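Ligand-bound model needed. nicotinamide-adenine-dinucleotide.
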Amino acid sequence: MRILDGKVTAAAIRAEIALEAAALEAQAGRRPGLAVLLVGDDKASQTYVRNKERACREVGFISEVHRLDAGISQQRLLDSIDALNARREIDGILLQLPLPAGLDSAPCLERIAPHKDVDGFHPQNMGRLMLGLPGLRPCTPAGVMELLKRHELSPAGQKAVVIGRSNIVGKPLAVMLGAKGPWADATVTICHSGTADLAGLSRSADFLFVAMGRAEFVTEEMVKPGAVVIDVGINVTEKGLCGDCNFASVSRVASALTPVPGGIGPMTIAMLLRNTLQAYKAHTQAQQN
Ligand code: NAD
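Prediction:
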């Protein structure tokens, strides 16, 4: 069985991004800039933000973390987003989710200027994804697609099953897989908490994508022999971090599988950097014209 190592792949992508950013800096007169808004003191969010900051530093981007009090009002949070929207040297804005209780993420995500929306969650970018138009794509599903491509695993013409229908993973991933193109073109089924016969459907998949948030839920009985399995899940358990697949069990039947950690997690951050570079290129071109 092939282990699809996201750590190694993401490191290669970061190296490419660093080279491109260094080459562009001379013309643009500035480096790409990412601003992260972190509201409250959620432990997992703090770790994610630290990892994003480190990745930015590694590729030579400027990164700012704005730490806001959990008690901030919705209006003050919107004002913080407006301030970042207005700054020319900030190319990407990321609002770390989940927000503390009492704050509504939807109007905040909609407030981020779509051209700075490096998480790809703004309705405009989601709509552009749906329509097959260029735009900033959600990082986790983009990371899944990039990992497949870089391992030359094409889902074209294959049966793909996505377990999970969230706005940040399952739904956009299903759209990307079913889009027209050489590294897509799959026939996609979306499964969710209302699905009858989940195991039967997942066993029919040539390519199985699991984004449920249920530790080690998927076992070999749910996987077709020879299937490619992408485990997006990150679950904190007593034993440490684990995915939505039982790695030992699934690896007995799958032809390829992502590890957790070290699979889609690092790919997600690499795609955040790629989106920031894409936004920077658009901004600096517009600023030069
Ligand atoms: P979510 O809770 O928003 O969605 C989970 C989905 O799984 C839902 O659509 C639900 O219908 C489905 N589901 C749950 N239990 C089910 C069941 N028993 N049968 C069928 N479907 C079921 O979660 P999310 O934000 O999409 O995240 C999913 C997982 O991916 C989590 O573990 C999360 O931590 C992880 N994640 C990882 C990354 C990364 O960078 N690797 C990024 C985002 C999320």
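The pocket of nicotinamide-adenine-dinucleotide is lined by residues 140, 163-166, 168-170, 191-193, 195, 198, 211-214, 232-235, 264-265, 268 (CB under 6 Å).
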